[in-house]
Amino acid sequence: MTKIEETARNFDFHGEALDNVFEDYAKLRSGCPVGRSEKYGGFWFITKSEDIFAAEQNHETFGVAPSMMFPPVCDRPLPPIDVDQPEHTAYRRILLPLFTPKELKKMEQPIRQAAQEQAAMFMAKGSGADASYGYARPVPLQIFSALAGFPEEDWSKFDQWMDDILYERIENPEKSEKATAAVFAYFDNLLEEWVDDPESNTLIDYLCRAEIDGKRLTHDELLRYCYLIFLAGLDTTAWAIRAGIWHLARTPEDQQKLRDNPDLIPMACEEFLRCLSPVQAMARTCLKDTEVRGQKINEGERVLLVFGAGNRDEDVFPNPDKIDIEREENRHLGFGGGIHRCLGSNLGRRELVVGIEEFLNVVPEFTLADPDQKWHGVGPLNLNF
Ligand code: HEM
Question: Average pLDDT, stretch 30-45?
Answer without folding.
Answer: 97
